[in-house]
């Protein structure tokens, strides 16, 4: 995947996850700093999942499973979504 395609895929995935959070009552742009930082970490993990395996820094990344599933199926399973990760870690 080239850089432009990676950015496009990550932008789409981020937009879908932001919408999912909003529909669940979480406005990320108004969320506390800790929630926004966690969202950034989740998206970093998602970006790494969209890269080749050799370009990853670690396999223990936030967002990895969600992005991998999205890449194959064009949706993120609820248990791997950003919103679920935020609520499971008691950030809200």
Question: What's the helix and strand layout?
Answer:
Elements lengths: L2 H21 L9 H18 L13 H10 L8 H7 L4
* Low-pLDDT sequence parts: none
Structural class: mainly alpha
Q: Please report which band the strand proportion falls in: under 5%, 5-15%, 15-25%, 25-35%, 35-45% or over 45%.
A: under 5%
Radius of gyration: 13 Å
Mean pLDDT score, rounded? Answer: 85
For the secondary structure, the number of strands is 0
- Count of individual helical segments: 4
What does the oligomeric state look like here? single chain
N-to-C order of helices and strands: HHHH
Whole-Å distance between the termini? 35 Å
Largest sheet: none
Shape: globular
Overall number of domains: 1
Percent of residues in helices comes to: 55-70%
């Amino acid at each position: 995947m080239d850089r432009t395609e990676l950015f496009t895929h990550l932008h789409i995935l981020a937009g879908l996850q932001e919408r999912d959070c909003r529909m669940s009552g979480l406005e990320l742009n108004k969320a506390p700093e800790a929630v926004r930082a966690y969202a950034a970490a989740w998206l970093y993990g998602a970006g790494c999942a969209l890269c080749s395996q050799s370009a990853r820094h670690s396999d223990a990344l936030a967002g990895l499973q969600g992005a991998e599933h999205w890449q194959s199926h064009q949706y993120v399973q609820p248990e791997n979504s950003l919103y679920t990760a935020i609520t499971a870690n008691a950030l809200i």
